[in-house]
């Protein structure tokens, strides 16, 4: 049998061998969608409803009975009903004794109740074995079959056998169960679908704050200063020039901030002489959102590339070039080719192109579909080694751009240096500390600490 045909066999539901009967309480959107999917996968489905009548909406191979009748037909009962209606289960406690109750419910707010819905269900029906599952899958995804993004189903429960039974159903539906442990994990599982891009909050707030700061900084230096001293109106710089100053500055700072926590973690581990002590909370959180910081940095770098590409077609640039040519012609003077400037300009552009290329490569390898296909060593090689090369190239790109202007007094307006000079502070700190850390006298103990060696066992938890 060829490989393709075996894959097709694996995907096709086994409808010839009927699986066990599963009961679903509630004929709402989720109950119906799950019931439909289960019937497709070969299960017999019986619905328990307040109104035990079939309708055109109910999957046609399913039975609809009263709650009590339906519960007696199956060992597993899926409660597809909102938590606030769970009270109706109390009179059914005797029938539900020993049954596996699957809590699929979600709340409207994070930590809405003191205990999770699943724990509340276990308190209401103490004789039943409660398992939390399916709450991260939507009725729409079940119905439309677009489960690619949410194939993972978190499962937790105190009874191992009951949890196994539910995980078997999850697998039979073509989904991937992820055992999260005991019912204590239910609160976290219930909070999961309510989180709004939790890892993006810090990178986005930070980049908004930095954007506002550098916008006003450039406004003062590049628009207000010339207006005050030269009575020149450069307010149109707001459209392209200032964004094209902010974007590379932010890209470089955020990229350096991706690598700064790793360097800080290394210093902390060296100081403590152990890796078995938790990092401070702020560092842990910072480390967890490095990928998002890197992606925001890449977005700013891409904008910088676009803004730079339009420079030749800008009216102001064309006007300035033609004015220079006319003034040279009027004065009968030509500027000779300055080889140093030519080298500086080409090197700065070349470093920028290479830096951006590696930046894009880093972004691509951080995508789950790509990172899932490389092993841990390959992933670390790209994200750490190539990441540092990217940081070096982008820092060098900015340094060469500055050229010999760093010490020139004309670069300072109201004592304020150019924004790109400020952007070099964090990357230079990261690169210098990283350079120091690769000296064998520090690298060797750090490697040993990361392999589990402890210098100061009193720090271990
Ligand atoms: P729904 O469309 O409002 O259906 C809820 C069902 O609960 C009703 O159809 C009704 O079924 C039953 N019900 C309502 N009031 C009741 C009461 N007082 N006593 C007993 N039963 C009552 O809600 P849903 O979207 O299907 O959601 C059901 C559960 O699945 C919720 O806990 C939800 O958090 C969870 N969930 C939903 C989704 C989703 O995408 N919709 C995704 C994940 C989890 P009968 O008329 O048959 O009695």
TrEMBL record:
Cofactor(s) required, per the database record: FAD; heme b
Signal sequence annotation: none
Keywords in alphabetical order: Copper, Endosome, FAD, Flavoprotein, Ion transport, Iron, Iron transport, Membrane, Metal-binding, Oxidoreductase, Transmembrane, Transmembrane helix, Transport
Bilayer topology: Multi-pass membrane protein
Keyword Metal-binding: yes
Record field: catalytic activity: 2 Fe(2+) + NADP(+) + H(+) = 2 Fe(3+) + NADPH; 2 Cu(+) + NADP(+) + H(+) = 2 Cu(2+) + NADPH
Chain ranges of the Pyrroline-5-carboxylate reductase catalytic N-terminal domain: 21-107
Residue ranges of domain Ferric oxidoreductase in the record: 249-394
One of the record's GO cellular component terms: endosome membrane
Transmembrane is among the record's keywords: yes
GO molecular function (one): ferric-chelate reductase (NADPH) activity
Spans through the membrane: 204-229, 249-271, 292-313, 347-365, 386-407, 419-442
Location(s) in or outside the cell: Endosome membrane
Top-level taxon of the source organism: Eukaryota
Record InterPro entries: Fe3_Rdtase_TM_dom, NAD(P)-bd_dom_sf, P5C_Rdtase_cat_N, STEAP_metalloreductase
Biological processes per GO annotation: copper ion import; iron ion transport
Recorded family membership: Belongs to the STEAP family.
Protein name: Metalloreductase STEAP4
Source organism of the structure: Cariama cristata (Red-legged seriema)
């Amino acid at each position: 049998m060829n490989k393709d045909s075996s894959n097709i066999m694996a995907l096709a539901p086994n409808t010839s061998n009927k699986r066990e009967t599963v009961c679903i309480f509630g004929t709402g959107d989720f109950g119906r969608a799950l019931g439909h999917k289960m019937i497709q996968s070969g299960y017999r489905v019986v619905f328990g409803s307040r109104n035990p009548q079939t309708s055109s909406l109910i999957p046609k191979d399913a039975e609809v009975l009263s709650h009590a009748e339906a519960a007696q037909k199956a060992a597993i009962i899926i409660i597809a009903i909102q938590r606030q209606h769970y009270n109706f289960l109390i009179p059914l406690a005797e029938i539900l004794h020993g049954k596996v109750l699957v809590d699929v419910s979600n709340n409207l707010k994070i930590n809405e109740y003191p205990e999770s819905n699943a724990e509340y269900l276990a308190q209401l029906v103490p004789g039943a074995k409660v398992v939390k599952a399916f709450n991260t899958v939507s009725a729409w995804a079940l119905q439309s079959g677009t489960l690619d993004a949410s194939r993972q189903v978190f499962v937790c429960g105190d009874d191992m056998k009951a949890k196994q039974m539910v995980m078997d159903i999850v697998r039979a539906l073509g989904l991937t169960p992820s055992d999260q442990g005991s019912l204590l994990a239910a609160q976290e599982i219930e909070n999961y679908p309510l989180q709004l891009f939790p890892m993006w909050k810090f990178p986005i707030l930070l980049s908004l704050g930095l954007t506002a700061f550098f916008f006003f900084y450039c406004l003062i230096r590049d628009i207000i200063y010339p207006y005050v001293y030269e009575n020149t109106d450069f307010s149109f710089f707001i459209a392209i020039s200032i964004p094209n100053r902010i974007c590379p500055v932010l890209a470089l700072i955020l990229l350096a901030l991706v690598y700064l926590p790793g360097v800080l973690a290394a210093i902390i581990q060296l100081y403590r002489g152990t890796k078995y002590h938790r990092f401070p909370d702020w560092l842990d959180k910072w480390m967890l959102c490095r990928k998002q910081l890197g992606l925001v940095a890449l977005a700013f770098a891409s904008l910088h590339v676009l803004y730079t590409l339009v420079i030749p077609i800008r009216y102001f640039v064309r006007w300035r070039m033609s004015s220079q040519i006319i003034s040279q012609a009027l004065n009968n003077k030509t500027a000779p080719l300055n080889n140093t400037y030519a080298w500086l300009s080409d090197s700065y552009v070349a470093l920028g192109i290479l830096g951006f290329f590696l930046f894009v490569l880093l972004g691509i390898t951080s995508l789950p579909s790509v990172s899932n296909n490389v092993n841990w060593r390959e992933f670390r090689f790209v994200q750490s080694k190539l990441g540092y090369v990217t940081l070096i190239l982008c820092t060098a790109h900015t340094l060469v751009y500055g050229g010999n202007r760093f010490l020139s007094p004309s670069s300072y307006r109201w004592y304020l240096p150019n924004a790109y000079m400020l952007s070099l502070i964090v990357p230079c700190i990261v690169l210098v500390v990283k350079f120091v850390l690769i000296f064998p006298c520090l690298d060797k103990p750090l490697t040993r600490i990361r392999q589990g060696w402890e210098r100061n066992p009193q720090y271990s938890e």
